[in-house]
Write a structure and sequence with these properties.
The chain is α/β, with parallel strands linked by helices and about 325 residues long. The chain is built from 13 helices and seven strands.
Length: about 325
């Protein structure tokens, strides 16, 4: 299984440049995936360097272990089976020192999307699962077969920014009353039928936003991101950098606002001549505008089109 895991690391060059890797540093890859970014980090580490890689997908951990083993590096590698939202708990449990760089690539890997049996894809028929960690939690089928219409509408609208959320939710409720959902093809077909003619004219697949929303809900992705952001400032060493790659506006908004708040946490009214709230800046927001893929990368990897990299450097 691990040998089949392939994933093009998005914004690879920009990410490694912005991490400003030092050979004796400590680096945390919160979303190990196939190990692409981590391999680039590891290749630059010396004997005093440490790389910690997190992933809650066992297939990803196995694939990353094989990839990292192929890198000729004297650094120490620690692979951890955890969700990136558990960084705060993992630091004391794994005795992780303050990090000189922390990376989170929030995209679903190409391999996961392309494996029909994982249930992420609206393009292939497979069991309606969508769990990153297949050993725990409710599946996508559990969600669409049990959630109320109001909850489904909220999920599709908030997590997928689906303008036809109400129509789609109503169609899901009607379908499952006759036959519970079990496959991705069933769900994709119901979503497509629920779309008005205008929605079917879009360039993307009609079910794309719905599948995104359900995947986010099943895996608690936004909650995990909020937990990660809460842990990052204290997890970084002075001068350390956090690099976060997002793929849709909900994630990017959370990261952008967090970095802005860390740089300028003052809550005093603008008319005050001096700050009296006592809130001190945690560092510098390196990416007032996010780093994005260039034309060559977008051509080679279309999934990079929506990727945005934001960078924060903790103060010294």
């Amino acid at each position: 299984m691990a040998s089949e895991f392939a994933h093009l690391s998005v914004l690879y060059r920009q990410t490694l440049e912005q991490l400003a890797i030092r050979p004796d540093g400590c680096y945390i890859d919160c979303t190990l995936g196939g190990g692409g970014h981590s391999a680039g980090i590891l290749a630059q580490l010396g004997p005093q360097g440490h790389l910690y890689g997190f992933d809650k997908d066992q297939d990803a951990l196995q694939a990353a272990a094989a990839k990292l083993d192929s890198i000729q590096s004297p650094a120490t590698v620690h692979l951890i089976h955890r969700d990136f939202g558990e960084l705060a708990e993992a630091i004391p449990a794994e005795a992780i020192p303050p990090a000189h760089g922390i990376l989170a690539d929030l995209g679903v890997s190409s391999w996961q999307l392309d494996q029909a049996e994982r249930g992420f894809s609206y393009m292939q028929d497979g069991p309606l699962d969508m769990r990153m960690n297949q050993s725990a939690g409710r599946t996508a089928a559990d969600l669409v077969n049990t959630a109320g219409e109001a909850e489904l509408t909220r999920i599709l609208f908030d997590y997928g920014e689906e303008r036809y959320a109400r129509r789609i939710s109503h169609a899901i409720i009607r379908h499952r009353a006759e036959q519970p959902f079990t496959t991705t093809a069933e769900l994709a077909a119901v979503v497509k039928r629920a779309m008005p003619g205008q929605g079917l004219k879009e360039a993307q697949h009609p079910a794309k936003r719905t599948f995104q929303a359900i995947r986010i809900a099943v895996n608690g992705e936004l909650t995990a991101l909020e937990n990660l952001l809460a842990a990052l400032p204290t997890a970084l060493a002075p001068g350390g950098r956090a690099c976060i790659i997002t793929f849709h506006s909900l994630e990017d908004r959370l990261v952008k606002e967090a970095f802005r708040r860390w740089e300028d946490p003052c809550t005093c009214p603008r008319e005050f001549p001096v700050c009296i709230c006592g809130q001190k800046s945690l560092g510098k927001n390196i990416s007032k505008k996010p780093f994005i893929a260039d034309d060559a990368e977008m051509k080679a990897n279309p999934r990079a089109r929506s990727a945005k990299l934001r960078v924060f450097e903790r103060g010294t």
